[in-house]
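Hey, I was hoping to borrow your eyes for a little while. I've been puzzling over a protein and I'd love to understand its fold better. The fold is given in discrete form, as structure tokens running alongside the sequence. I'd be grateful if you could look everything over and explain what you see. No rush at all, and the record is pasted right below.
>
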Amino acid sequence: MFRHFLSLSLALFPLAAAAQDGFRWVAEPRFADAGVAHQGVVPLFDGQAWGLMGRDGQWVLAPQFEAVGGAGQGRFAVQRGGLWGAVDIEGREVLPFEFQAMGTPSDITPVKWQGAWYALDPQGQPQEAVLNIDELVGNDGFCVTGRLNGEAVADWRGAEPRATSAGDGAFGVPVGGVAVVELGGRFGYLECQYGTISGGEAVFDEARPFVEEMGAVRQGETWAYVGPWGNSLEIAGEWTGAREFSEGVAPVKDRTTGLWGYIDRQGQWVIAPQFDAAYSFSDGLAGVNLGGKRGFLAPDGSFAVAPQFVDFTRAGGGVAAVKTETGWGVVAAEAADPATMLNLPLADLAAAQAGRDPGYALVPSAPHWYFAQDVVSLHAITFSTDGRVMITTLANREEAEVALWDATSHRLIRKLKLPGATQALLLPGTEILAVGTETGHLVLIDAVTGAELHRIRPHDGPVKDMVLSPDGRFLAVTDGVEPALWSLPDGALHARLGLPGEKLRFAPDSGSVLVGSSRGDLGRATPEGEILSQIAGAPPPEEPPMMSGPVPNMALSPEGTLVVAGVRSEEQPDGFYKMRTYLTITREEEAPQVLDLPDSLTDVLTLDLSDDGRRVAYAGNSDEDWTVKVEVRDLSTGEAVASESLNAQDPGDGIARSMFAVDRLAFVPGTGDVILVGAEGDAIVRFDPAQGRITAAFGEPLAEAKGAAAPPGGALYLSSDGDGSVWVWDMEAGALETRVEVPAIGAEEMAWSDGATLYLADALDEGDIVAVDFDTLEVRTATGEEAERASQGFADYAAPPPAELAEAIEALPGPGQAVTLRGGAMAVQSETVGLHRAYDLKTGALLAEFLATPDGEWLVLTPEGFFAASPNGARLVSVANGLTAFSVDQVYQALYRPDLVRAKLAGDPEGEVAKAAAQLDLAAILKTGPAPLTRFALPMEGTTAETPEIEVEAEITDEGGGIGRIEWRVNGLTVAVQEGARGAAALESDVPKARARVALEPGANLIEVVAYNAAGLLASVPASLTVNWDGVATDVAPDLYVLSVGVNDYADGRLKLNYAAADAKAFAEAMGKAGQGLFGKVEVVTLLDAQVTGAGLDAAFADLAAKVRPQDVFVFFLAGHGKTVEGRYYFIPQDFRFDGEDAITRLGIDQDRWQDWAAAIRAKKSVMIYDTCESGSLTGTRSVDAAAAQSAAVARLTRAMGRTILSASTDDAPALEGYRGHGVLTFALLDALGQADDNGNATIEVTELAGYLDRTVPEISQAAFGLRQVPQMSIRGSDFALGASVAVLSDEEAFPTTLTHVALPGAALLDGPGGAPVGAIPEGAMLGVYRIEERDGFARIAKDGRAMGWVAVGSLMALQ
């Protein structure tokens, strides 16, 4: 078992490997004793006295001391002549030898003088008040622990001194202001500054020092770790031993093997358990014991010094004292050599990335999500040096992540979970991220794969800022104490700057580095570390900024302006005090200035400076409830350039529609635009202060997932967002079924299900419990009995899953609890951010990810990249390729496959998904080169046009993939297509511009242009432009044009149909009748059988394109065979002959051709009706869900044309059998013309027709054929009338009920032109009628849809 475990570990975790000559002897092992190394200096005892030896093997101070005490901040406490003093690592005396005892040199150093203990500052000056101890335990920073008169005391000597007693308990040595406390045999942690015990009480059996905000605690025989927020376990595990965290990892003892290894802050093994003992890291080395021998590990888990010693002490500065059989000596490990250990192997890492194929990934494009009880700023924003990539870092401790965004397409490239990250930037010319952490590490990450490439620890505290020089030669990093610079060409640590500060910027010429502090201090140094200038700032603010990570309320510009936000209290005339928010502005060679901000602003959450230092942008809370203020202010005048109020209760039309608060903002380099990152998962947007509007959005906030449940055995999955909605997902269909409105509960929502009902409640409120019935989705208040059961269910929420599923659920890779559905075949795990994952419980395989936005858009995505989505749901996913990303819209035609999503969720029983994935070569699409960039040149954004038609002009820039097809859209309608070579030919030779003439509608018009690469496979992001036209619609009556097409008699006899041609003819006749009297004229074109060829359709569309005006109505009807091949729709023309597997793609009429034809029709009011059947006759095979495949293909066709589409795809059988002499859809269409007038205005509008089809087609198909034929509908633009209400399926002759004329009173009604009288128009009033036809001076008339007879033409007056 032991050997088996080690072999498994070898495959999963790094095991130590011995290094040859991995160290050198600094001092041979001949000494009697040794102390702990500090900054490269080691105390050694030669048997007579102690001395201090440096890394070079030379004595810093030769043996002369009786004892050596603690070391800190470059100083050692030493005893000479019976008295204690302190020396530094250069050998200088820094505290005189006059003390009876001394603690560890630190921010304050406790010393005993004349029987009393005092606190000395770093300059050796004592505080006036003596320390409250008579016996020292230990000290660190400003905290001292000891005993006074037998009682345990912790004495804080910071700005507000405080002494805390633990009575007969005990305090340990403090670390970072926190000390272990023992009370009554129980252990906990004391926060020395506040005198409080974490969690309110000591509850553990044992505790070790609290380091890097983690404390190892024991309960019973098990060790775990607590964080800074109480006694709840931060990292739980089955460990029988644990030591302190250091440099991001901690040694723990595995219960199973009894061996020690190292875990990270998520509790995951980073160095497998394999040692008899292991100790915490120190300056890149960790001591271990293996087989009775001791050695040192490097951070990557390899041996820096192989086990060979009898004993050792903790390393420091790359050296450590070790003991052999002959005595103590000092070794220097090559892996921890200060001269090289902080160098970065950039050249080797970049070379390893060169020439690789980054592949592609489908990425849900959502911003960072977090939840915070308080208003916080957790983000950092940087840009690549070429401006193409924006990097946002969510510095949220263990939940930290880095996101890369394509700054051109505004799409998410990828997110990388990097616990502890505080800052990140992209190294120029590479795909390497440099990431700073809260533990002071600088980590190199592969920006494509997320793999960690290299790690160093140049700082002790959190990394607060990172910048690159404009020339790309230097990287500067600061922890606020000592900035460091690296030379990027060779990766070497270049210099450390003696200018403390939290903000860094390089000068525009890269010749100097600016360093700013939160106190307002401003300094400048050369890259070599020479200080050029130092300016002291104004007094620090009364409320110092948050300093746990990146500092949000200060900014520094490259030209040398430092701005720090602060708050001060001002006495008012009434004697009360009010807080005033202000900015301190520091510039070189100028006295600091103070700019007061508006009285209503209570704080500044985040701010930034423009590159030239002339403008400051900030966001802060207002004294108005629920309001955040965002302003851009000119520093020279103090005037606001732009100002926006974000009110969550009344968002209006501004930034507040995207976010309720701003977490972080930053100027876009080289522009005046500002990036705004919303709080707690809200959007990330680009804001143009000059225009006062958002110009781009980077991330789409998701509907959060607070609680979830599923009916037993069913396929529904219910997820509540805590904000008033329960989202109901159909995990068989792969779609969002509905959204159920419930009372909003909030962030503390609890959910539980009893198998029949979902119960929701607020964990912080004892109010009503909401119940949602699984069967009816009815929402109600839970009864008393239900509430009692639900309350117990909430308490047992973390109960284990059913025994038969427990093992499978435990193996799922995602976070959080799993909800099972479909009889235990599937499990869904949800992240609070709103991302859900469905797994096959038998195999553990990921089936799909799914998500929704608060506005109702949704997406379901398979691992292969196929997706189903709402009309605009495709915007929720990006295609990432290297360091670029684009919208899935750009490859929509290849990936939109709801049919394959359904098959995947069913387990892909027929292998359809696997086959399609094998055929799909998205990588090949990407290799054809990037899509062009498009940008409108004319007219300007917001232009008001003088005429209803204008010429638009767009710049089309070749990004390396060439320029092909160009598409123009107005309000979503494709109005022009410049195909292939015509697209390139449309460009001027000297300037890459394309032009088109487009018609406008009254009001605002959204004009878009899309360009494809030369291969026609990859589309650009649409460039958009809004143009207004203040005119009114023409008063010229519109004409109706109908093109009705149907094929029965195919050249290939296997394709013969019975009803398609008849349907086309019937529809044409019906529309001709319905259009009479409602339009200026009606023109109906019918193509049947042999006429339905590519050439025939081309001619028909060309003829109509020459006639149809923008104000006219166009209706297209198509009946015949369709075929879906690899997700793409083809119509089979009459002259088609099957002559091979590729016949359909060669000879069928594809989407591009339909788009070309439709774009030529200028009518803005148009309807395209497809009544086509999915043929299985050609190949003898038929998909189990062929109709679904064709439906998906028609949906893609809809997007291409941007027109209203009505369709109902079906398999062969129903089409051949027909229904009452027609196809099902056609029958319903004809019936709708007489039955669908829901609003009673005697006309049939598009929405009425669509609603009628939606109701009747499924009913008819289910009754007649035992299957539900569900029509697809995509309605674009405003509603409009298609014709008059007229019954065309009745045996009785019927006519429109529309009134076209009035008949004069008393006019005779005849049985024919000049025939016998059959009646008369009533006397006393004129009668409104419909004129059917005219012949020989007589007109046939109808009333209420029925013929009345014939009257003399002179008896009629036309209605206007």
Residues 1-20, 542-547, 1176-1184 have pLDDT under 50 and may be disordered. Residues 199 and 230 are 4 Å apart (CA to CA). The domain at 707-852 is CATH 2.40.10.480 (Thrombin, subunit H). The longest strand covers residues 1113-1125.
